[in-house]
Specification:
By secondary structure, the protein is α/β, with parallel strands linked by helices. The chain contains eight helices and eleven strands.
C-alpha cells in the first residue's frame, strides 16, 4: 500500500509492535513518540491516516486533533487510549477524531479499523488519485490525462501528487518545498521551474488547464468544472 500512515504513541514498545505489524501487512508507516513532532510532521507532509494516542506528554492527542481540525487538516485520525469511558470516547470524536480504539487491543482489530477508515475516506480505488480527466496511480506512479499517458520526472510527480491530494485546495510554496526537497531547495527558482515543466506536460497539450496559480498564496489543481 502506498498511502503513508503516521503512528504516534509515547510507549516505545507499543509503537514498535504497531509499526512492525503494519509494515508486515504492507502499509507504509512512519512513527514518532512525540506529540510536538507529530504535529510538525502532520503540518508539513501529507499522510493518508494518523493513529494517535491520547495520552501523550506535553501535547496530548486531543490537543493535536483539535489543532489539526482548526487548521482544516482533515487527515483521518484513529484515536488510541487507555481510557475506555463513554466521556473519553465522546470527547475524542467531538474534537474531530474519526474512530476510537481502547487499549489493550488486538493488532488485527487495529488493522481492520485502519483499512475501514482508508476505504471510507478514499473509496475502493485507494491507489488512484483523480482530478477531472487527470488520473495518477500511486502504486505504479503513472499519470494519464484523457486516457493519454504523461511522462513526468520524479520532482514533477511529487509536486503533482501533492496538488492532487489537496485538490481543490491551495498548496503553498513552503509546503511544496518541504515535501519535495525537505525544505532545502536547490535555488529560489527551482519550484517555479518545475511547475512550469509540469504545466507543459499536464496542461499545454489539452484544451483546458487544470493547474492554477494563486498569487502570493500558492497553486491548486481543479477539475474542469471547478474553474471559474
Amino acid at each position: 500500500m502506498f498511502f503513508p500512515i503516521l503512528v504516534v504513541d509515547d510507549n516505545l514498545e507499543i509503537l514498535s509492535n504497531i509499526r512492525d505489524y503494519l509494515v508486515l501487512k504492507g502499509y507504509n508507516v512512519e512513527t514518532t513518540p512525540s506529540g510536538a513532532e507529530a504535529l510538525k510532521r502532520l503540518n508539513s507532509r501529507s499522510y493518508s491516516l494518523c493513529v494517535l494516542d491520547i495520552g501523550l506528554p506535553v501535547i496530548d492527542g486531543l490537543s493535536i486533533c483539535q489543532t489539526l481540525r482548526k487548521q482544516h487538516n482533515n487527515v483521518p485520525i484513529l484515536m488510541l487510549t487507555a481510557r475506555d469511558s463513554i466521556d473519553d470516547r465522546v470527547r475524542g470524536l467531538e474534537v474531530g477524531a474519526d474512530d476510537y480504539l481502547a487499549k489493550p487491543f488486538a493488532l488485527r482489530e487495529l488493522t481492520a479499523r485502519i483499512d475501514a477508515l482508508l476505504r471510507r475516506t478514499y473509496g475502493d480505488n485507494r491507489n488512484l488519485l483523480q482530478v477531472g480527466d487527470l488520473v495518477m496511480n500511486l502504486q505504479t506512479l503513472t499519470v494519464k490525462r484523457a486516457g493519454r499517458e504523461i511522462k513526468l520526472n520524479p520532482i514533477g510527480l511529487a509536486i503533482l501528487r501533492e496538488l492532487m491530494l489537496k485538490s481543490p485546495g491551495i498548496v503553498s510554496r513552503s509546503h511544496l518545498e518541504t515535501v519535495v526537497w525537505n525544505g532545502s531547495v536547490p535555488d529560489s527558482d527551482s519550484l517555479r521551474t518545475n511547475i512550469y515543466l509540469l504545466r507543459q506536460s499536464v496542461d499545454k497539450p489539452f484544451d483546458t488547464a487544470l493547474i492554477k496559480t494563486h498569487p502570493s498564496l500558492g497553486w491548486s489543481i481543479c477539475g474542469n468544472q471547478d474553474h471559474a
